């Protein structure tokens, strides 16, 4: 229920990423005590290079062909040829001959097919958020952390199991195929009405991004 409530808030507000800054204020009865407390207080520093300490790290479990990785401080992706650690704030790009699989021990795996771009927006234990900008990716959820994927104007919450998301930017059309488990999609219509639709195992939804309309059918059809 908490996962669905969070998902509804993300759909209605259009905001699914939030940064919480914790500030600690220490006061005392006199100036000396207050000054001493401020000096001893722990200050939280934001690091552009490193993800938050409590974020979940992943790794590229396998790759083939041309695969590029963009760090948190880079302005464009650079080709990689071997496995590496992946953290919140980074981006993976596969070219027309590239394939890659990202594994998160507490989340699951994401298999990227050719010509796919995936941004790892947030990997906190409370919620993981990814932005799939193009291409096709297979998401397999094995952990308890909610996994949300944004693709154009569509949000997909993978509650459990395995789902594939494919984006045809020329149409533009997004297809969500749920092979097992359960997924929930959400979007705003052109009249700013929020729509939430569950997709059970064995079903697929086609989302027309320009008209904000969906069609559902069986995977066996």
Layout of helices and strands:
Blueprint: H1 2-13, H2 31-40, E1 58-64, E2 67-70, E3 78-80, E4 85-86, E5 91-94, E6 99-104, E7 108-112, E8 116-124, E9 127-141, E10 147-151, E11 154-168, E12 173-188, E13 194-200, E14 203-208, E15 213-218
Parallel strand pairs: 9-10
Antiparallel strand pairs: 1-4, 1-6, 2-3, 2-5, 5-8, 6-7, 7-9, 8-9, 9-11, 10-11, 11-12, 12-13, 12-14, 14-15
Features:
221 residues; Jelly Rolls; 15-stranded mixed β-sheet; 2 helices
What's a quick, concise take on this entry?
The protein has 221 residues and is mainly β.
Would you give an account of this structure?
This protein has helices spanning 2-13, 31-40; strands at 58-64, 67-70, 78-80, 85-86, 91-94, 99-104, 108-112, 116-124, 127-141, 147-151, 154-168, 173-188, 194-200, 203-208, 213-218. By secondary structure, the chain is mainly beta. It has one domain (2-218): Jelly Rolls (Sandwich), CATH 2.60.120.1440. It has a 15-stranded mixed β-sheet that branches. Strand 10 and strand 11 (154-168) form a beta hairpin. The chain starts with a helix and ends with a strand.
Q: How many strands appear in the DSSP assignment?
A: 15
State the domain count: 1
What is the name of the CATH topology?
A: Jelly Rolls
- How are helices and strands ordered from N to C? HHEEEEEEEEEEEEEEE
Shape: globular
């Amino acid at each position: 229920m908490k996962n669905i409530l969070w998902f509804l808030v993300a759909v209605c507000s259009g905001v699914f990423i939030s940064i919480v800054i914790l500030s600690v204020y220490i006061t005392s009865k006199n100036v000396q005590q207050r000054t001493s407390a401020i000096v001893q207080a722990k200050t939280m520093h934001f690091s552009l290079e490193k993800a938050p300490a409590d974020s979940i790290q992943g790794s590229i479990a396998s790759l083939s062909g041309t695969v590029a990785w963009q760090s948190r401080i880079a302005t464009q992706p650079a080709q990689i040829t071997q496995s590496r650690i992946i953290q919140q704030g980074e981006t993976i790009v596969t070219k027309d001959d590239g394939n890659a699989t990202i594994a998160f021990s507490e989340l699951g795996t994401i298999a990227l097919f050719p010509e796919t771009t995936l941004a790892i927006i947030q990997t906190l234990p409370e919620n993981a958020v990814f932005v799939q900008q193009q291409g096709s990716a297979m998401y397999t959820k094995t952990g308890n952390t909610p996994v949300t994927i944004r693709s154009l104007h569509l949000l997909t919450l993978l509650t459990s199991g395995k789902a594939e998301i494919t984006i045809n930017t020329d149409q533009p059309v997004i297809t969500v195929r749920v092979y097992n488990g359960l997924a929930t999609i959400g979007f705003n219509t052109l009249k700013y009405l929020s729509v939430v639709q569950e997709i059970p195992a064995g079903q697929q939804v086609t989302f027309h991004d320009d008209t904000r309309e969906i069609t559902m059918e069986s995977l066996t059809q």
